[in-house]
């Protein structure tokens, strides 16, 4: 039986279309015509011997085969791009300076460091963990080449949104609505020191709902917040990204608390046209954050 060699360009169009929720947008991002992308999708289905997409209302949804293909497509593209970067960038030297939120220090950073080091063994990456204002200021002043920061009304000239995540009430690993707060008593909050976007979101949501609250624990670091929440000292607000095992994200219904808004995440660049190493690091970060 002859082996099937999936076409990398077709896989990229497929994965990009699913990521963006639109194959027209995928065509624009990949500098192709929509008809070319449609032909690539048809070719991919022929190679797979199965339908990858099905109609869902006015849009398209993945079939079971499509879900399987998407997982493999992302892995194949990741290896392909890593190989291309390693071969093309092995001789690059110097440093790349990355700033990011504490949310990503343990979950995202090790993965990004590993992939970047394999692609650029002679490049040194410096990472700085800081709050939003400091990160964006670092990019504007040229102290950072890239910064991953929550969208908080403060922008930089060269920023792109990499995704949106739901804010969630955060309780201990065994948290239930009855354990989070006692009826008739102020809701105990464990939050980062001001100014903090998510702290403000929690307080505003509670005030609108007429739910009394009090800050029982405040810290300059997330590690302190997780310790306090895990110990049952209070409830916090964060996204589901990078949560330790000692806490868990709750929906508003589970927590018995008001709904919270979505939160955008942006990647800020110091230069409009960054050097190759910075551009590849940005690509690694975006791919790592893409839903699996």
End-to-end distance, in Å?
A: 31 Å
Hey, roughly how much beta strand do the residues contain? 15-25%
Average pLDDT level = 85
Structural class: alpha/beta
Overall geometry: globular
Q: Output the strand order for the largest sheet.
A: 4-3-5-12-6
Largest sheet: 5 strands, mixed
Helix content: 40-55%
How many strands?
12
Alpha plus pi helix count: 11
Order of helices and strands: HHHEEHEHEHEEEHEHEHEEHEH
**Estimated radius of gyration:** 22 Å
Which stretches of 5+ consecutive residues score pLDDT under 50? none
Describe the structure.
The chain is an alpha/beta fold and 292 residues long. It has eleven helices and twelve strands. The protein has helices at 8-20, 23-29, 34-48, 64-89, 109-119, 132-140, 177-180, 197-209, 222-230, 252-255, 276-289, and strands at 53-56, 59-62, 94-100, 123-129, 146-150, 159-166, 168-172, 187-192, 213-219, 236-238, 247-250, 262-269. The strands form four sheets. The protein has a five-stranded mixed sheet, sandwiched between helices. Helix 1 crosses helix 3 (34-48) and helix 4 runs antiparallel to helix 11 (276-289). The longest helix has 26 residues, at 64-89. The two termini are 31 Å apart.
